[in-house]
Design brief:
With 122 residues, the protein is α/β, with parallel strands linked by helices. It contains 5 helices and 7 strands; from the N terminus they run βαβαβββαβαβα. A 5-stranded parallel sheet has the order 2-1-3-6-7, sandwiched between helices. 34% of the residues are buried.
Amino acid sequence: MKILLVDDNEELREFMAHSLSEAGIEAVTAANASEALIKAAADRFDVLVVDSFLGEDDGLDLVARLVASKSGKNTPILLMSTISTALARRIASAAGCSEFLVKPFGLTQFAELVRSMARTRK
């Protein structure tokens, strides 16, 4: 299983990628929307994981661009956010996200959710 993990926080991004790797999930990483769009177009991913705040980029804008693209329109998308309101969840769902995960979260929970999402794609 291979996912694209998009987060502007390098330390957190690499930590999550390493943790997923230990759980048997290959994580290709991107630091921003531009890098994510290039990588999504160049490869096939089972799940796209996007942080809601990407420095100068907006995670929801990236989700909309991924959903509109050939490479992302049929791929489940998980949005990670520190905002835990019902409104944030509805906005994420309307943008095309399959799942919404509030930070901080447990790494086991994260890996299990990613696996579950990948199974829905097959």
